[in-house]
Amino acid sequence: MKALRFYAPEDVRLEDVPEPECGPDEIKLRVRNCSTCGTDVKIFHNGHQNLTPPRTIGHEIAGEVVEVGADVNATYGSDWQVGDRAQVIAAVPCGECYECRKGWMAVCQNQTSVGYQYDGGFAEYMIVPRQVLKVDGLNRIPDNVGYDEASAAEPFACAINAQELLGIEPGDTVVVFGAGPIGCMHIRIARGVHECGPVYLVDVNADRLKMSADAVQPDETIDASEVDVVERVMELTGGRGADVVITATAANVTQEQAIAMAARNGRISFFGGLPKTNPTITCDSNVVHYRQLHIHGANGSAPEHNKRALEYISSGQVPVKDLITRHIPLDDVLSAFDIVKNGEAIKVTVEP
Ligand SMILES: [Zn+2]
Ligand SMILES: [Zn+2]
Question: What range does the record give for the signal peptide (predicted)?
Answer without folding.
Answer: none
